[in-house]
Amino acid sequence: MTGIERPRTTAARHRPWPLCRRCSGIALDMGSARTRAWIAGRGVVVDVPTVTFPGSGAVHPIQRGSIIDTLECARMLQRLLTHRLPRFTRPMVIVTAPVLGGVAYRTQARTAVDVLRPHSVLTVPGARAIAVAAGADLSRPLMVVDIGAHLTEVVLLDDGDITDARRTALGTSDLDDTTTPSEIAGAVASMLTAMLRQDRSPLTVDAVHRGILLAGGGALRPEITAPLTEQLDMPLRVVPAPHTASVRGAAKLLQAAHTHPSASGPLPPAVRPR
Known about the structure:
Blueprint: E1 25-30, E2 34-39, E3 43-49, E4 62-63, E5 66-67, H1 70-81, E6 92-97, H2 102-113, E7 120-125, H3 126-133, E8 142-147, E9 152-158, E10 161-168, H4 181-198, H5 203-210, E11 212-215, H6 222-231, E12 236-238, H7 245-259
Parallel strand pairs: 1-6, 6-7, 8-11, 11-12
Antiparallel strand pairs: 1-2, 2-3, 4-5, 8-9, 9-10
Helix pairs in contact: 1-2, 3-7, 4-6
């Protein structure tokens, strides 16, 4: 893997964060409601609403798990992060992505992140980042439920790879007089039930018996988790600090990438930021 600022000579040993001041990396989770970023050596330094103010009112560049305004998304990242990075460095950036966001989301995310002048950009499924944050054994089948503000995903992982996924454009921000917590719980239960009915392999059953990993802001809402527990005859495991699990998992992946043996050898000089 390339993309890490390293010593100029191949003989010099690579030093892990936070001792290597010339190394720079960002783990980024851009949600419809909030954007969270982890910067090497500083921890989670950004946890703010996903909104910009270009002069004509508030703009929400990400909606329902889709980037609808790439330019404003880039401006938001520039405002939030460029002044927090070491000067004259080109960071490696790991961005979490909705599992069913497709090529379009990953392409738009890379375009927006380009404002940070990264040396390399990697996108990882949010469900996998959540599993990493939880310290889950990825060699076994695992079911992840991520209940966000505007999007809810149910994902089946096998050996870390996505084998099945469902989503609904429904989340905690939709709770009002017409959308109840039980409806969100019911949507999750319906997606899980559909997976169990359609899967012809034992993967889904094994993952369910192991315990469903629950993350996202919705995992902090007992009015959602309680009816979900009632509707499902399945064990549930809430990830610690579930609302930040995605960015924390991305941070672990970033640290692992930085210390990988392939992260050695010279790189071209960093580009001076404009």
